[in-house]
Amino acid sequence: MLGLLVCLKKDNKVMPYLLISTGAYLGLRAKDLLNIKWIDILGKDEITIAESKTGKVRSIAVNESL
User: Fold this and answer.
1) Residue 56 burial by CB count (10 A; 0-12/13-18/19+): exposed, middle or buried?
2) How sure is the predictor about 12, in pLDDT bands with cuts at 50, 70 and 90?
3) In whole angstroms, how large is the CA radius of gyration of the chain?
4) What is the predicted pLDDT for the residue at 34?
5) How far apart are CA 59 and CA 19, in angstroms?
6) Helix crossing, 14-26 with 2-10: angle to 10°?
7) If you write DSSP's letter for every residue of the chain in order, what string do you get?
8) What whole-number distance in Å separates Cα of residue 56 and Cα of residue 66?
9) How many CA atoms lie within 13 A of 17 on its CB side?
10) pLDDT digits (tens, 9 = 90+) for 16-65
11) Global pTM exceeds 0.90
């Protein structure tokens, strides 16, 4: 996956790069990932999300690399 991210960044494909890296670092399903806004992540150490499939509410630590 890191190889894919390197290629996307090199080819200047910003949107796919951001989507894939955010999903990978947060470990979310695509549907849950699409519901997150940048304001929810930027400058925070942790986010709280209600998973669409299970309905569970959980807190996720935001990876420093993200």
Assistant:
1) exposed
2) very high
3) 12
4) 87
5) 20
6) 160
7) -HHHHHHHHHTT-HHHHHHHHHHHHHT--HHHHHT--HHHHTT-SEEEEE-TTT--EEEEEPPTT-
8) 23
9) 12
10) 998 888 888 888 888 888 888 888 888 888 888 888 888 889 888 887 77
11) no
